């Protein structure tokens, strides 16, 4: 994920939630497979914590998402 993020955003712009625009103006969203798993958690409280954490990110941080998933409120 880091490889694609760095290559595609070089000369472009980084945005929220894993979105970036490359140097040619093409938009991409770099999404790790684990994000889909975490957002699909049957516990709606856990999946909501993951969503809220992701909305605060530019490049998606897998470790931070995993911590948000298991954090106690």
Automatic annotation (TrEMBL):
Pfam families: 3-dmu-9_3-mt (PF06983)
Keywords: Methyltransferase, Transferase, Ubiquinone
GO molecular function, one term: methyltransferase activity
Biological process (GO), any one: methylation
InterPro entries cross-referenced by the UniProt entry: Glyas_Bleomycin-R_OHBP_Dase, PhnB-like
Domain named PhnB-like: residues: 1-31
Domain of life: Bacteria
Protein name as it appears in the record: 3-demethylubiquinone-9 3-methyltransferase
Originating organism: Nitrosovibrio tenuis
Taxonomic lineage from the root: Bacteria, Pseudomonadati, Pseudomonadota, Betaproteobacteria, Nitrosomonadales
